[in-house]
Design brief:
- By secondary structure, this protein is of the alpha+beta class.
- It has one helix spanning 4-44; strands at 54-58, 75-78, 82-90, 102-107, 110-127, 132-140, 152-155, 165-168, 172-175, 178-184, 189-193, 195-200, 203-207.
- The protein is 18% helix and 37% strand.
Length: 233
């Protein structure tokens, strides 16, 4: 037989042991959380790069104080297996760059060897400071012949998005009033204001109110005034 008093004492001891077990479990969880916090702190002290490469610049030394207000990165890491060729496209050729363009270029380290790079991306925006559009071409540097930061001389193939007109270089008149060519209209000289484009050998691209098939003076001078009668031979 067990008395009621002994049952009460046993139940009280059970509740006390249960509370002690719960407290121990909570202390264990707190210790685990503290350990995880220390592990995160240790991991924070390790700098991991997102890709393989070579450190080309180190801006810190052992003992330096590192903070978030620095103007320079801790390290500069470069992956030289794939390089980007950055080209400033003049404003007048901004619409003449094809997405399938392949450019050839040379570098001063080996000017006799030509390399090819494929169009990768473009800003599609003309910068105000130099009136040019930045475009990037990808180059696979598998042989490690090129180094990052080299200057290149680029041959860029451009294609107009519509047909344009070329006239002889000698047909252009560069005066203080602007650029003109002389069109022949009913045996009369007519000065037409134009804008110059690309030059191809002895021809120059022109933009203005002049059409294919119209007659222009091949060798024009300022002495040939607007409205002057012309006799065709």
């Amino acid at each position: 037989a067990v008395s009621a008093h002994e049952l009460d004492m046993s139940f009280a001891r059970m509740m006390s042991d249960s509370a002690l077990a719960n407290a121990s479990a909570q202390n264990l969880e707190a210790a685990r959380a503290q350990m995880a916090s220390h592990q995160q702190l240790v991991a924070y002290l390790q700098v991991r790069a997102p890709f393989d490469g070579t450190i080309t610049e180190r801006n810190i030394s052992p003992g330096d104080l590192v903070g978030s207000d620095g103007n320079k990165p801790l390290f500069i890491l470069e992956d030289k297996s794939r390089l980007r060729l950055t080209v400033a496209i003049p404003e007048n050729l901004a619409n003449a760059l094809s997405v399938n363009s392949v450019v050839s270029f040379t570098v001063q380290a080996d000017p006799s060897k030509a390399y090819e790079a494929h169009y990768g991306r473009s800003s599609n925006s003309v910068e105000e400071k130099n009136r040019s559009m930045m475009a990037e071409f990808d180059f696979v540097n598998s042989d490690d012949n090129l180094k990052a930061g080299m200057y290149a001389e680029v041959k860029l193939p451009v294609t107009r998005n519509k047909a344009t007109l070329f006239v002889p270089l000698t047909s252009i008149i560069n005066s203080t009033e602007g650029v003109f060519l002389v069109r022949i209209n009913n045996h009369t000289a007519e000065w037409v204001s134009v804008q110059k484009g690309n030059t191809l050998d002895s021809l120059i691209e022109v933009f203005g109110p002049v059409k294919e098939g119209e007659q222009v003076v091949k060798t024009a001078t300022e002495e040939l005034r607007n409205g002057q009668t012309i006799t065709l031979n």
